[in-house]
Amino acid sequence: MQESGDTITIGDVKVAPGEIKHIKLKISESFFTSPIVMPVSVINGLGDGPRLLLSAATHGDEVNGVGIVRELIYSINHTNFNGMLICVPVMNITGFLNHTRYLPDGRDLNRNFPGRADGNPAQRIAHTIFTEVVSKCDFALDFHTAGDGRANMIQVRADMRDSNVKRIAKAFGSEIIIDSEGLPGTLRRSAAQSGIPTITIEAGEPHKFERKVVKQCLQGIMNVIYELGMMKGTICEPRFQVVVKKTEWVRADRGGILEMKTYPRSLEKEGNELCVITNPFGVEVGIVRAPFTGMVVGVTTRPVASPGSPICHMVKIDKTLYKVEQAIRKKAEEVEKVHGLTELLQEIKSEDDIAEIELQLQKVAAMLIAEREEAEKEAKKKEMNKVETQKLAEEKMDKESKPEKESKKVAEEKMDKESKPEKESKKVAEE
Ligand SMILES: [Zn+2]
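A: This is the predicted complex of the input protein with zinc ion.
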């Protein structure tokens, strides 16, 4: 493990312990020979600890990770921070600008790591990123989403044979961990082969910032930060955690228009309806059913299918089924107990419904807070008026009773004068 007591250099920028620097690292050149730069933010703690890389948008259209890493950069409290965070919110700059997964030459950056200094454009970019950033880190979290036309529940992909990979994969806290080595050329596999334990987080849909996903992944990052001892804090455990090796795409056997009956993160029993396929006149032509009991980790978001189109990405849950069911039930009961949301819960059919309900609750909460603030302001005003009136009344009373007080004072002074010689003599006696 490298220690952060020393300074890290990325490009030609040095970042000393206790410093935060935002670096523009040149990774390529435009047709106009101007540099194409990649943003790298380094948050260097004062204490010794590992260097943790947080990277996103290696596929330029998978932007949830951009929201996650960006938010972490400006929200993390780095006082008493051990080690270093190296944050790259956008790896594939041109893909991000053009809303596409690929580089301008049509290549996939995440199939070209660790790259080559004298290779094709994708290999050269990958090489710069790998040598200047990735190879200088001790651990890495690489954020992705589902591909175009699909949505994923939050899931970790990790090579669980490596104990350090396993450690951060479990700590991140997703309910599903898919145990795999990763495809050749991916950042995850290349970094792991170079001795940098790395996991991929698949979260949500491409082309959008999903608030709920961003929030959950930020908690996941904090979990890893706590696990690695970079900050003190308690890891937030998931409802359950299942490690699977195999996943399966359930496919349509008919062409038609899709009416989805399931959603990411739904537990489906064998034989459950996942999707109804109709023709353009609304006549049912087929039903896609769950081939086994398991969790839906991804779904298509396209409304049209041909025979063979992937509909649902599922993982089998057998041995842990009872545990998973219990955990889901317990969580639902907790929510119901805390918020009394029985009716609202019955309305939930999809992740979108949950987001919608959350939004409604946020609005209600904002309204209640505004009402409370208004009431407090009003009460304060009343209190001030009361004090003012009381003060005026007292002043009035004071004025009226002054002559009496004056005479009392004079009388007291007189008495004082008369008794002074006695007091004086007492003082002398004491000394
Ligand atoms: Zn991706």
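The chain has three domains: 8-242, 246-340, 347-431. DSSP finds nine helices and 19 strands in the chain.
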